[in-house]
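Appendix B, record 7
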Amino acid sequence: MATSPKPTKPSADAPAVPRRSAPHRLGSQVTIKQLRAFAAVAREGSFTAAALQLFLSQSALSALVRGLEAGLGLRLLDRTTRRLELTAAGQDLMPTVQRLLDDLDRMAGELHEVSERKRGRVRLGATPLLAVSLLPPLMAAYHERYPGVDLRLLDASADVLLGRLREGELDLAVATFDRLDPDLVATSLLSDPMLLACPRDHALASRREVGWAQLLDQPLLLLKPGSGLRALTDRCFASLEPTAAGMPRPAQEVTHVATALALAAAGLGVAIVPAYALRVGGVQNVVGVPLVAPRVTREVCLVHLKQRTPSPATLAMRQHLVEHMSNQHQAARARGPRRKG
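Structure tokens (predicted):
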């Protein structure tokens, strides 16, 4: 009766390699340490030299290479007492392994640069008035500090900004928000008082402050209904004492605060604006007078999504805005609300 041949016991110099019966998933069978061990041995042609290069013992290095061969089901090195050679499979694999390790090293370097804010991207959203008044110098200062970060600005309404934030198209948004949902994290940047903006030669321009009731007979330059600033203005007039209550008839209804300021500078009426609006460039001959009875402030907030992890560059922008916007605004308020052309 025929008998099956007994399996041959592998020698110490030629460890047994399991036969691959099914395609392997490289990621589940191979580690980066194994690939680095194989590449070092292939480059140096010696376990001793490769072990010194990788700061490993020769036994640890040999174990890594054997693990790689077992995981791939291939013998990569022929070991003898005299020499060490790459097998045909090892020669075929080496260029791919080296490219992979080079890519990993390059990626690690890039990630380090990202963590150090030497590169990255920040997509910042702001309402048009903030985008034209407070943000430009802050963005310039950030760019000077982190020149490798790609900083993009979207100027749009608060509702649009929140939509883009949730869609993943923005990292941060700066605006005055009527309401914020629980999925958002808000940080207050500044509380800005409401002012009357009028020409320098206007009868109210020399006042230290002006009551809302005194505006009922003035030609008002208001934003169109639907804006947050117009809603606030209407609430303030509606809250006046019954003897003074009334909703004024606007002389003009415009879309942008900058338009209202330009019309006020031309003597076509008076505008109701937040204090930071007087920092809009190009508007001359306008004086800002604080409004009282009621005294109203608008809260400018920086928001981001609670469930989205910010990048290092985004974290740096958040910190930059929190630290510098309030300081910048306080310095402007210390100089007084009036602006003369």
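Remarks on this record: The first helix runs from residue 26 to 29. Confidence is low (pLDDT under 50) at residues 1-27.
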